Amino acid sequence: MATSTEVETPPAAPPKPVVRVGDAVFSTATLAAGILILAILAGVALFLIAQSGGVIEAQLNDPEALSSGGFLQYVWPLVIGTLISAAIALVVATPFALGIALFTTHMAPRRWAPVLGYVIDLLAAIPSVVYGLWGIALSGGLVPVYQWLADYAGWIPLFAPDAQGYVSQSGRTILTASFVLAIMILPIITSLVREVFLQTPRLQEEAALALGATRWEMIRMAVLPFGASGIASAIMLGLGRALGETMAVAMILAPGALTASLVVSGNQTIASEIAQNFPEAAGLRLSELISIGLVLFVITLLVNMAARAIVAKTSVKG
Questions:
Q1: Which InterPro entries match (predicted)?
Q2: Per-residue pLDDT tens over the stretch 94-126
Q3: CATH code for the domain in which residue 171 is found
Q4: Residue 6 lies in a domain
Q5: Given a cut of 60, is residue 1 above it in pLDDT?
Q6: Does the pLDDT of residue 271 top 80, yes or no?
Q7: What is the largest CA-CA distance in the chain?
Q8: Reduced to 3 states, what is the DSSP secondary structure of residue 52?
Q9: What is the extent of the structural domain holding 154?
Q10: How many Cα atoms are found within 13 Å in the side-chain-facing hemisphere of 289?
């Protein structure tokens, strides 16, 4: 019986991928851009740490040489003032930003929606100095409002008057600065949230309406859940802008010590403290200002890390 031997042929080698010049250039450029950003960030951090060495040495050897008898006593009120102003601005701006974004994407007539969007975006193009001047002009008119809050809600520490029973007669308080910050971060949050709402699948919106949902129910069930991660990102970016805003806040705030009241002058921020004192600073004082800049750098970095975590968690839930 004749047997035939089967000859196994080796599998053909997979074709080598074709490397296009454009893809290689683009990949290299993006990698270089990412490395450059990390290098700049590391360079800024190393510069701040190196320039803060004098403060660290003084804190260990002679704390009385620093402002307020020690670095912690100096920087802690500034951190509190920075967080208070940014938090108030975020609380005030976020509802308006969400409302404006929903109105321009789902409520306004089609021919008026782009115009309203452009007007909101123009707020981001106004210089900080103009906002500061507007805040100074606004502060005087807020004095009666602050006095009314102190008279009828003074039992709340946030609206308590000073020891003489008065509020800031100039109106240049942390609350005024927070209102101006809210206007400044409003276009940032609104623009990002508007773009997120526009990305909602049209089929989901039409399906909700076809099932008998009202327009608000459609927004609540289809639009808001889809854009949850984008909304969180926009809010955190607005918070980062509020934390680092300098000129407008420095122009509005009047110097003063840390206070729990929002209607009494005080509660400086880190950025405004640096802007007001850096030009004439030298020696240890200069190192001290750079060191509080390092503190603001760390706070901003932590905020961005928290934003990434919130967005990632929201995306998983979605």
A1: MetI-like, MetI-like_sf, Phosphate_PstC, Phosphate_Transport_Permease
A2: 999 998 888 888 887 778 878 887 888 888 888
A3: 1.10.3720.10
A4: no
A5: no
A6: yes
A7: 120
A8: coil
A9: 77-317
A10: 15
Looking at the domain assignment, is residue 297 inside a domain? yes
CA 116 to chain centroid, in Å, comes to 23
User: Residue 82: which residues within 8 A CB-CB, separation 6 or more?
Assistant: 243, 269, 270, 271, 296, 299
| Contact call for residues 260 and 155 (beta carbons, < 8 A) | no
Report if residue 90 sits inside a domain.
yes
Distance CA 138, CA 263 (A): 14
Q: How many residues in total does the chain contain?
A: 318
Domain count for the chain, please give it: 1
Indicate whether 101 belongs to any domain. Answer: yes
Q: pLDDT > 90: what percent of the chain?
A: 8
**Spatial separation of the C-alpha atoms in residues 186 and 90, rounded to whole Å:** 9
Q: What does pTM read for this prediction? A: 0.81
DSSP-based three-state secondary structure for 262? coil
pLDDT at 318 over 60: no
Q: What is the pLDDT of residue 210?
A: 84
Nearest-angstrom CA–CA distance, 273 and 301: 20
**In the predicted structure, residue 18 carries a pLDDT above the cut 70:** no
Q: What is the C-alpha to C-alpha distance for residues 285 and 224, in angstroms, rounded to an integer?
A: 49
Both tokens assigned to 258: 């840390």
In degrees, rounded to 5, the angle at the alpha carbon of residue 29 between the alpha carbons of residues 27 and 30 is: 65
